[in-house]
Design a protein that fits this description.
mainly alpha; 3 helices; 0% strand
């Protein structure tokens, strides 16, 4: 998977996790586990870190 796709997926995960924390009542009504939103946010941060490492490794090869 390209680093750009990982960046966008990570940003979407981070924004989704933060949105759930900002609007917990609406998320609860939709059936979202509000406590698990931090896992989604953490996964987004993980994807951002991995994409950074991939970009740095790709830059050294060229």
């Amino acid at each position: 998977m390209a680093a750009e796709k990982l960046i966008w997926t990570g940003l979407v995960c981070c924004l989704a996790g933060l949105t759930i924390q900002v609007f917990p009542n609406a998320a609860f009504r939709m059936g979202v586990d509000v406590g698990a939103s931090w896992f989604v946010f953490g996964f987004g941060v993980f994807l951002l870190l991995i994409s950074t490492l991939i970009s740095l490794a790709g830059g050294k090869r060229r």
